[in-house]
């Protein structure tokens, strides 16, 4: 029986996925990677696979990269995510490099590691300009620069003491990440692809209604996905290798074309997982056209695990 080392991560998705693996006959061992005892077990016992759905907190992410590198690269043991796919997780700079190299549409982006080049950018910039931290999430990592003067102050700080971000361990320091301001989007789409078989997702509505905290959060989520967006994301996912799972954040640029703003092999947690499980499911019909499935034999989680096992070569 194959043994899977499954990390009890803080997203708590192991409570959903571990039972599915066990039902398929795999021996799942739940471990805490921050425990010295469990670390010793990981290094001394035999494992056939290692799963750690580690989110973006720096102290978690940094240890996860070490273990994924160790098992995937050094030990040649199956992992989820793969070290290759996790390396660009929560790293907007690396994600931009990947998207650009694959000719995948993304907002106009300007990344500088030289202060003088960043200052030069301001001379021709079309304000307002968005600035972002390369890692982390939340409003503390994104802001608007509305004038050349604001831009100069920001650049001076970024290449000086640094600009505070969501995680104090990861300030905007010695680089600037600027992006064109995209107008007219009522929200951003969070789209999830499962291999080349299924797409699901929703739009996160932005606007004045979000300021009313008495409204249920579900009011800000809508589940219809335009057909042209399904086709766009499908083509993006194919360019990236039709992985068992990948999420994409999508907006329209100022010309009305779809663009990818971010991607990630890790997304969501047990507290918001219902947004993904409640989403409409789209698959191609016999004519190759995306249609909504009223019923599916496999849940999204079951399909993901089936696709992962196929990728690992454990099932046909």
TrEMBL record:
GO cellular-component terms in the record?
cytoplasm
Signal peptide start-end: none
GO BP annotations, alphabetical order: SOS response
A single GO molecular function, which one?
ribosomal S6-glutamic acid ligase activity
- InterPro entries linked: ATP-grasp, ATP_grasp_subdomain_1
Domain ATP-grasp, chain residue ranges per copy: 96-290
Q: What is this protein called?
A: ATP-grasp domain-containing protein
- Natural source organism: hydrothermal vent metagenome
